[in-house]
Amino acid sequence: MTRGLVLLAALIFGYAADAAAQTKAQKTQSAPKPPAAYELPLHFYLAKGEANACGEGCSEWIAVEGRFDPGSAGRAQTFLRRHAARKLPVYFHSPGGSGPDALAIGRQLRQLGITVGVAATVPRGCASARDTAAACAAAKRSPQPVLAEWRPDATCASACVWALLGGKVRHVPPSARLGIHSGKFSLTRRWSDGRMQQVSPRDAAFKARSAESIASTRRYIRDMGIDTALMDAALKVPHEDIRYLSRGDIAAFGIDRREFVETPWFFSEFASGSRHVSKWIVEAKGTERKHYSVSVASLTCTNLLQVSIHYVRGVASDEPAQPMSATVSLGDRKSMLYFRGAPTKRAGIDDGAVFVSATTYVTFELVEAAVAAGSIKVSEGGRTEWAQDVSLSIHGLVEGMKILREKCTPPTIDAA
Predict the structure, then answer these.
(1) Residue 94 bridge partners (DSSP)
(2) Can you name the CATH fold of 260-408?
(3) Which pLDDT does position 278 carry in this prediction?
(4) What is the pLDDT at residue 26?
């Protein structure tokens, strides 16, 4: 029998971003649920939101969600070329998948000179970015832009990160998460009688092709102008695990080095029953502006009249330890924030960083007055280079507060 040629070699970056959650779900559910929208094969559609929905002057974008499956690069090329003249930004929400397809898509994006970012898209008719209902699926198949909400709390993991690097300009909101890990390489050999056989990782051919795939990815990263230390970092993480990049990592590797970024205010509701409207901010601080601090301001309804303002602020490792306070200016009214307790880690905000937090209480009317005045400002005490004095955009706050107030209102009981 004559040995056949290698038929298939692929470097796969799977979706370990939700591995822990999926494992837990498998233990508690008797039957598997259908895949969420962002776990389906990669799909593309045009979306349109309110003015400045996806940034200053941006109201339309290309949504890309799902896993990078073999062949997705071809579909991406067709879709992107069809809309290339408009130079719409591309926003990913994906758990990963096929590495070669992600690299090919990244190169297409760079060739077209398109801005690329991370965001979830929720078309009207969809309950969330993961919705697979018929109405939601139909909206995404429309050849016309679908009315949608642009949300900055999205994930781009494993192979998705490589595609993201292809953007000429890259926008990673502070609330988005970038996850990396090592790839899973597979090699299949076809024999002359048609049999297929997986090649052992100990085989010399497997080792050679695996090294070639890693080298190809490293060249791609370098071609995109990104520090190849990103590849070294990914190779240190087992494929079954995930490492979410800190904001400092994102800047150090060259993915997004903007010194100030803020998300719109957006509403979130959790299974625990917690509901809030939040804004995430990242600011480069320190003498050399090399420490990237993430802060989160959130509004939570405490009763029908009152709102709590919770402010979580990142602290640098070399920032002087001192009592901290801040003033929240809501239009012409002010409320004090006193930071208490030792700095603690909050991996859900920024892995590797530590935070302090403070809470104050104001009325719904006061927040709404600040919206009308177009002014919310957080001013910290202290005169060091670490003190923050941030004017926060009110973009998204009107709609967010409307939803929060509706959720806070008890249901009406009809008298029989």
Answers:
(1) 156
(2) Immunoglobulin-like (2.60.40)
(3) 96
(4) 33
